[in-house]
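Private note to self, pasted from the team thread so I don't lose it. Backbone tokens:
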């Protein structure tokens, strides 16, 4: 199949590679020309705008962009997907965005006969590379069934969560748990380090017990190696927690722990760490404890 793919960042590039590996032809677009060049060198075809991508791809277009305003402008804006899309084409937005924005975009798509799913992912860059992401989808179940096989080229788990926006609602829950888990790991490891126990030993001793987690396994080695290359950027996690807190306010679901971690991430952003991996949350604890996790 000829698949359009818009957004070639940390996640988009390996997702495109996996679609090409599975034998699909991929037509790409990104505002950063270096990202486009990287993918065309590997066999993708490029198009000059989201509209041009849509004119070429009559069956399926995927977006993997930072946040709601980017997806809205790429889909609904000037030279956007909807200006070039043929009726019947399926748009899968795999970005993590506000579920309400997914609904707005879905309605604009429906007016043009374009069918849309929201299908954000979890697992980060390593799982995007391996093609083992967890994908959580919202929209019409019939549309989901049509594209499930293609999603399985990028993910190991592909779950239909409900109507449009359900994928992003599920993703917000995921992001709350990940943020709180990184904060809990940072707080606990700072305690044991202050007490003089080597963090490597704490990690080795507890990772297989109840406190162990995928987050701990992925992020503690980064903290110990002082490797804060993203991965998942602090600024993107701020965006997700903003969306979670705003949804929580609208729904009457208080998120006190999320709000606390949000302020830690805001502090790190103000201190110049917005483009660091979210494992750099440990730097917040290092600052308030006056000691490095080493
Ligand atoms: P990124 O910042 O690396 O990439 C985003 C890409 O979108 C960039 O290449 C940028 O140039 C492009 N872009 C922005 N505006 C555009 C526009 N108007 N037209 C075309 N291209 C545009 O981000 P990422 O890490 O790849 O994340 C993408 C999405 O996936 C985000 O919503 C993020 O929250 C989510 N996500 C990321 C991870 C992760 O570990 N990185 C994990 C799960 C989910």
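Design output:
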């Amino acid at each position: 199949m000829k698949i359009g793919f818009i957004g070639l960042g940390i996640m988009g590039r390996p997702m495109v590679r996996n679609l090409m590996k599975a034998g699909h032809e991929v037509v790409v677009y990104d505002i950063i020309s270096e990202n486009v060049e990287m993918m065309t060198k590997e066999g993708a075809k490029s198009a000059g705008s989201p509209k041009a991508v849509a004119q070429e791809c009559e069956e399926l277009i995927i977006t993997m962009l930072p946040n709601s305003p980017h997806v809205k402008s790429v889909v609904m804006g000037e030279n956007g997907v909807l200006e070039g899309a043929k009726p019947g084409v399926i748009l899968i937005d795999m970005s993590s965005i506000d579920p309400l924005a997914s609904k707005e975009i879905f309605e604009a798509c429906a007016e043009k006969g374009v069918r849309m799913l929201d299908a954000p992912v979890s697992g980060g860059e390593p799982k995007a590379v391996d093609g083992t992401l967890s994908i959580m989808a919202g929209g019409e179940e019939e549309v989901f069934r049509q594209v499930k096989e293609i999603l399985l080229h990028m993910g190991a788990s592909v779950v239909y969560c409900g109507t449009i926006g359900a994928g992003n609602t599920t993703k917000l829950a995921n992001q709350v748990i990940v943020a709180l888990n990184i904060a809990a790991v940072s707080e606990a490891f700072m305690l044991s380090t202050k007490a003089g126990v080597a963090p490597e030993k704490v990690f080795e001793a507890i990772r297989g017990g109840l406190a162990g987690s995928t987050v701990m396994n992925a992020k503690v080695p980064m903290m110990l190696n002082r490797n804060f290359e993203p991965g998942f950027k602090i600024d993107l996690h701020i965006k997700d927690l903003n969306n979670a807190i705003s949804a929580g306010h609208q729904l009457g679901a208080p998120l006190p722990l999320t709000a606390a971690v949000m302020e830690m991430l805001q502090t790190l952003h103000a201190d110049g760490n917005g483009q660091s991996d979210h494992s750099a949350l440990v730097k917040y604890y290092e600052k308030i404890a006056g000691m490095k996790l080493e």
